[in-house]
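Batch manifest line 282
LIGAND: calcium ion
JOB: complex structure
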Amino acid sequence: MKTLQASRSITELMETAQEAVVRAGRLLHEHWREFLEAGVGFKGPVDLVTEGDRRSEATILEVIRSRYPDDAILTEERGAVGRESEYRWLVDPLDGTTNYAHGLPVFAVSVAVERQGQLLAGSVYEPATGRLYVAGRGEGARRDGRVLRVSGTRELDRSLLATGFAYNLRETDETNLDHFDHFSRRAQGIRRLGAAALDLCWVAEGWFDGFWEYRLHPWDVAAGVLLVQEAGGRVTDFFGAPLDLCRPTLDVVASNGQIHGAMLRVLELGHTGMHRASSSTP
Ligand code: IPD
Ligand code: CA
Ligand code: CA
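JOB STATUS: finished
ARTIFACT:
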């Protein structure tokens, strides 16, 4: 049974998300070498996990539980923890683990909170640069206090896009390589950074005009989705439908809104043989 809880202000939720990502992010940065020396594990053929992922996650849980001990939390490394509750936290303790494990300073910590399917607050921290992103429903999106606004680019062939490739690339026909091919011929450029949370923050910044990726998880995108929406952008699945954060995997398209239709049309080119129902694996 779900526990009924007193309603909370968006500001207090934003503060908790920020405190969690900053504390965990500093730990990841300060102990980077030591965490890698502890060894790197494999969750799949190319899916890594480090001591950094685990320690960062423990730090975030500590912050959330110290304020909201009864909340549900979904984390990447532990799955669903805590009891069912009105509020649910979505935690990616280290987005960009492959980069982190190779010493590449492109990684982030992402924490968001939702209530009955509606994202209320989210924060992403990029430890290597110290950039701190935060958004609250109806409160806008900010980086280090500066209000964020998506780009004004109207055409796909003037757009800089970002994408990523899911870890099961070797085991599926939905590789994203066909979409990559189609977008490469239509956009100004495409980047693959290896940290979906940052890809979304950078759509909110207006640095990227759009982003798409198959089979992301709710913890990868929750904070970034709110950042894009609050910065005036649009986020859907590959068919233009709203994202359902209760699904285990999500196919995500995020954009400045203006090129969204054009992005969906390009994604359709690669949908041959794909059923609508497979857009987000149940
Ligand atoms: C991964 C990154 C990457 C994306 C993968 C994600 P992780 O998250 O966001 O950019 O392409 O699909 O799983 O494993 O580094 O937290
Ligand atoms: Ca991730
Ligand atoms: Ca992760």
